[in-house]
What does this fold into?
Amino acid sequence: MSFLELKNRYVLHGRLHGEEGLHIGSGVPSTKSDAPFLRQGGQPFLPGSSLRGVLRSTVERMAQTLFPGRCCILFDEQSAAANCVAGTKKERERFEQATAEEFDKIRSELKVCAICGLFGSTLTASKLKVSDALPAAPVVAKRDGVGIDRDTETARDKLKFDYEVLERGCDFKFSIQLENGEYSDFALLYMAIKEMEHGVEVGGRRARGLGRVMLTGYDVEYFDLNRKYTLLDFLDKGFAKVDKGQFEGWLKESFDEWRKPSKSS
Ligand SMILES: [Zn+2]
It folds into this structure.
């Protein structure tokens, strides 16, 4: 399928709960803290790019276990799937360095594995967008950390520093958008959502017990020709809505289909 088409769109509106405190550093010390929490307009938030990275590595690990050889792990040449030209440097360069004329000739060979297809690669756009997660009533606190002296491997007083933590119990809203989803995309989304419901870790200082967030609920809006609610219906009436239970059933169907050994992509 081409990105020039728009066959379907699914928007999952999700709710995340901070099971633990969180630290997503801005990377720039401020007058208030050595390691402030990342903010936008003064408000702390979880960047969509972090969540997306967590989702990708989650499905990568699961796919390696359940379907070895069918999908790549990002930046790991050893694990490159045979059916994916984005998985190895040599193959990527064949496409990246091709002139427009050469590219036209090899265009039909541009096949990527399900994970590179969903999350994108240097050769293909992503089908999945993950929004920033915005907290409802954030409470930010300061904690003390201790640096380790690299020479003596001991903590030294002067290496003390502080960092900001978003306290546990924080609720967030975020969304995941999938366009032109095929059954392999829904199968991967099934794994990602299931894992999020059990809890995933984001941000830094995880060894300090920080980072765990859990998906506590979601609703889904969509249009999809295959679900008898077309792009035209969407333009006339807006999105169709589906609840978590029904959507999960759809994802599970795709997952069961994709699990079949005959499927190679
Ligand atoms: Zn791949």
